[in-house]
């Protein structure tokens, strides 16, 4: 990814603000720009906007919203910020944590009020690490719906989104970014800009960068978007920008195998367990789905069985992915433990022992405290593996989303948001709090768009 001086012949077109990437982050940034009275062009490498957002559950954590109040949930940005830092063991930059926790509620309500996104709170189960129920999602609880509704909002606001254009070169004049060159269907094209927002996500699709920065997950299933090649970090390196926490990532230890469908962690938080091919439990499942990836991959053949019951399945069906997994036959059902052993191929005696190891009101040998209700027949099971979903390290930024140089000073007109910027998941995988990815995408997209417009 080259960084070159501004071409003497100039640019074919010039726009006030240019956004690279049309996932949730880039589209939110575009809506923020037009809402502030600015003009924007969004370029996207794929044929249609999707990105990693479309592969997610589309849930955004936010504190103190009217959606929570309507559901009788009392929450605050301070409590949210404390939860973020507790999960990451205090490794995050505090000003960034405070910004995201403070702005998340207002951003979700802005999208709902200004662009008619019908958010509601997931209020029937808890996510690990969140002291309150604060996950906001759309009716299908899918990232595909989120990115589609954002795209429709952009189209209604007359935002220009040009697809099949991958940016390859940044042009600079001193410390200012002046434009980009992109590969188009008919060859290279150059666009000049007064401000540039990098919303091109992380580097999970760049296997060399994954091997260098997070070797423990190098061989995991890649469940993110192949276009996440680390462009922002590479450009940043060339510019002298500072990157932070490049070993941080979100894993997931509950991807149906071999179907490759995400199974909501609600099947675990509702009371489910995971066992390996010997029917043995192997960790405290309540820690979170990100660290579950390594735990599952460390088991024989890199797989496990997630065991739950039909009560939990009825909650999980609010997620489209779970319904898709059922339709594909990934979810097995059994009326008894012997039948469960038969449909999974697991050793029956050890399976019965593992099911009995989780007692209501007790803390088991792995440190999991189980509040119940207990698992009861009919049982459900799905074979799963661990996956890498997206990276959480990236360009270090100010609280107005400007990219920082290595000396800490900001570039005047270069912004990074979402996966292109450092997240708030600490330095590894265990610091990831559910929803951190879309939290950074939506809030930083909103902030970057607003600030970029005010400075053009």
Automatic annotation (TrEMBL):
GO MF annotations in UniProt: oxidoreductase activity
Pfam family, one: FAD_binding_2
Any one GO biological process: steroid metabolic process
InterPro entries, sorted: FAD-dep_OxRdtase_2_FAD-bd, FAD-oxidoreductase_2, FAD/NAD-bd_sf, Succ_DH/fumarate_Rdtase_cat_sf
Cofactor dependency: FAD
Key words of the record: FAD, Flavoprotein, Oxidoreductase
Residues covered by the FAD-dependent oxidoreductase 2 FAD-binding domain: 17-427
Lineage: superkingdom: Bacteria
Protein name per UniProt: FAD-dependent oxidoreductase
């Amino acid at each position: 990814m080259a960084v070159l001086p501004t071409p003497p012949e100039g640019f074919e077109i010039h726009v006030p603000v240019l956004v690279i990437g049309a996932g949730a982050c880039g589209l939110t940034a575009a809506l923020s720009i037009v809402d502030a009275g600015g003009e924007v062009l969004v370029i996207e490498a794929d044929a249609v906007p999707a990105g990693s957002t479309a592969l997610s559950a589309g849930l955004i954590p936010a504190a103190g919203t009217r959606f929570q109040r309507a559901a009788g949930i009392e929450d605050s940005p301070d409590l949210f910020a404390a939860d973020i830092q507790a999960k990451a063991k205090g490794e995050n930059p505090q000003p960034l944590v405070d910004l995201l926790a403070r702005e998340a509620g207002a951003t979700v309500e802005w999208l709902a009020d200004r662009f008619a996104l019908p958010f509601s709170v997931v209020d029937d189960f808890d996510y690990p690490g969140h002291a309150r129920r604060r996950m906001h999602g759309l009716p299908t609880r899918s990232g595909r719906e989120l990115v589609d509704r954002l795209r429709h909002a952009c189209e209604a606001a007359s935002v220009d989104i040009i697809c099949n254009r991958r940016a390859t070169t940044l042009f600079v004049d001193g410390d200012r970014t002046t434009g980009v060159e992109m590969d188009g269907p008919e060859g290279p094209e150059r666009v000049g800009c007064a401000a540039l927002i990098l919303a091109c996500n992380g580097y999970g699709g760049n296997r060399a960068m994954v091997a260098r920065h997070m070797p423990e997950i190098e061989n995991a299933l890649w469940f993110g978007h192949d276009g996440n090649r680390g462009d922002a970090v590479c450009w940043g390196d060339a510019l002298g920008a500072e990157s932070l926490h490049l070993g941080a990532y979100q894993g997931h230890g509950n991807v149906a195998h071999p179907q490759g469908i995400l199974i909501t962690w609600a099947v675990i938080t509702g009371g489910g367990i995971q066992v390996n091919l010997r029917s043995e439990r192997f960790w405290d499942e309540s820690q979170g789905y990100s660290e579950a990836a390594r735990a599952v991959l460390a088991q024989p053949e890199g797989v496990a069985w997630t065991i739950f019951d039909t009560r939990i399945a009825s909650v999980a069906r609010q997620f489209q992915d779970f319904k898709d997994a059922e339709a594909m036959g990934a979810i097995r059902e059994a009326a008894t433990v012997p039948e469960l052993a038969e449909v999974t191929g697991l050793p029956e005696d050890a399976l019965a022992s593992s099911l009995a190891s989780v007692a209501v009101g007790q803390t088991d040998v792995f440190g999991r405290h189980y509040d119940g209700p207990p698992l009861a027949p009919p049982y459900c099971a799905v074979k799963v593996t661990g996956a890498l979903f997206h990276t959480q390290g990236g360009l270090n930024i100010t609280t107005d989303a400007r990219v920082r140089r290595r000396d800490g000073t900001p570039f005047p007109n270069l912004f990074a948001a979402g996966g292109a910027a450092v997240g708030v998941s600490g330095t590894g995988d265990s610091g990831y709090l559910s929803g951190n990815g879309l939290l950074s995408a939506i809030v930083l997209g909103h902030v970057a768009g607003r600030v970029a417009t005010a400075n053009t």
